[in-house]
């Protein structure tokens, strides 16, 4: 029987292989053509070999300068790549930019004494590490167990290190991750060679702080290691080669949105990216220039699942106008459908996008061409410009942070827009695509709070997304993913786009008569109490209401099934009741189901003479809130932008302090530590 089964299995595999050569070739292109590092010994490994051991990797490749990064949106990753390249080209170091989640650290105690480790770490939310840094963060801060037991007192005494953090000072736990990792490394005996650098996204000073910090790092290493600087011109790290048989039309663009998202975000196949059909979409606002899309995604049969409070990650598409601008400005328009292959010059360089693609696919689906411009990118571009006036203008931007802010950052210009407005009419900028790959970040998924309950809609994920254009003289700034989802909604419902609304090529979103998105479920700690009898206080503004819709939806279902439900109070802020007060009929339905156990308090900031926000509601209804917090251990939730969250927190601290004998700041701190105070802010 086993022989028959084996034979049948072999025939089946042979049939599948022959029937789907295109699929297998795509897997080879997207999975196998990302740059890999050749192991020493030509594949021969010893019994103790561990390809994930970072010390083994360093020794095999002769690395003496490794830059670890923890990155959520790509900023820390980009800084790490830049620093590693600068160390190699400027000082002749053997460098590696290392994704923290790709290695294990049990033998970190054997880190080479002649080497330097740099940690570039982002913090988000409540001082949490990024997804790729979470395992390392837990390992290094929670009594790490090193394989080398001979150095029990100072296991990292051989390590020389530096650290830089990316955070936002509007969050309470500003740069908490890099601070905790630094403290852990020092406790374990590692020696820091320069002060811990910190970049503040809230003030827009991340890049300036990084530039200043890295120069201090190089100066310290000059003194410690005797580094000598080389006079070198910036050279690209990649080679872009058009295929010999140039294919016209869209033959080079026939990869699905799911294949692209997997190749970009999940080359190892460890994540759950799936193609999910759009089940329903509708408009929630009555505003003339702001749009709020409620969208429901069908995850039945996809293998995806979620828990109330989780996030859904959406893979977006760049707008047609920005794709065309980017390709035209950099002289790629005529060859936009040419298939190209990208390879790395240095073995440790990681190709930022799939190695086989087209210029159009790269601009539309793989590069964040609508994202912010960095000063370091501008300084690189200058080397390739031929027009003297344009070169002088960009040199000033690269060297003067104040001028850069006024001319670029404050106007939310992307790189193609900047080059366009500083060029003469019709002028093409001769910057090689290989350089653009280093200066434009890869496109990143956007994360949204799920606005449905997994108890009520197990097979459906709801999200609530607002598209709010920012108006400048003669142009409008549009968010990438929010407007993409608005375009998907428009197409699905047969609606016409409004004036100045960007269009999108939805070819890869269409599956027959339906529309499909590439999505992933992202786990969150934003959770209702396990015991439904506990009271909850929810505070949100704008689309910060999304997870609270899910919470109330779940509590209504529990109440209808006979489960005891604690009091639920929702403070909700928006502009006007007639314009952007969303899910109003659902709140009324919830009040009928939950009765006195549910109360809704609203603040409409532009409806009355004096503006009223959610923090003002807290003061007005302190008698409702304080007893729940102080005597009934209510769970407290805040969702929305960081400024609102900070104001709400300050108000609560003042109320608790003035109305009780308890220190408000200490009370909220303790509540957070016990999981009774949770935030989902951005």
In short:
This protein has 682 residues and is of the alpha/beta class. The protein is built from 22 helices and 24 strands. The strands form 5 sheets. Strands 1, 2, 3, 4, 5, 6 and 7 form a 7-stranded mixed β-sheet that branches. Strands 9, 10, 11, 14, 15, 18 and 19 form a 7-stranded antiparallel β-sheet that branches.
**Second rung of CATH, namely the architecture of the largest domain:** 3-Layer(aba) Sandwich
How far apart, in Å, are the first and last alpha carbons? 59 Å
Structural class: alpha/beta
Q: What is the CATH T-level topology of the largest domain?
A: Rossmann fold
Biggest β-sheet strands, sense, barrel: 7 strands, mixed
Number of domain modules: 4
Segments where pLDDT lies below 50 for 5+ residues?
1-47, 248-252
What is the overall pLDDT average? Answer: 90
Rg (CA only): 27 Å
How many beta strands in the DSSP annotation?
Answer: 24
CATH class of the largest domain: Alpha Beta
Number of helices: 22
Proportion of residues in extended strands: 15-25%
- Fraction of residues in H or I helices: 25-40%
SSE blueprint:
Blueprint: H1 2-19, H2 21-32, H3 54-61, E1 65-70, H4 75-91, E2 95-99, E3 116-124, E4 128-129, H5 134-141, E5 160-167, H6 176-187, E6 191-192, E7 197-200, H7 206-225, E8 238-242, H8 257-265, E9 274-283, E10 291-298, E11 311-314, H9 320-329, E12 339-344, E13 356-358, H10 359-366, H11 375-381, H12 388-399, H13 401-407, H14 415-421, H15 433-439, E14 446-449, E15 460-467, E16 470-472, E17 475-477, H16 480-493, E18 510-511, E19 514-522, E20 536-541, H17 546-560, E21 568-574, H18 584-594, E22 598-604, H19 614-620, H20 622-631, E23 635-640, H21 642-659, H22 664-673, E24 677-681
Parallel strand pairs: 1-2, 1-3, 3-5, 5-6, 5-7, 20-21, 20-23, 21-22, 23-24
Antiparallel strand pairs: 3-4, 8-12, 9-10, 9-19, 10-15, 11-14, 11-19, 12-13, 16-17, 18-19
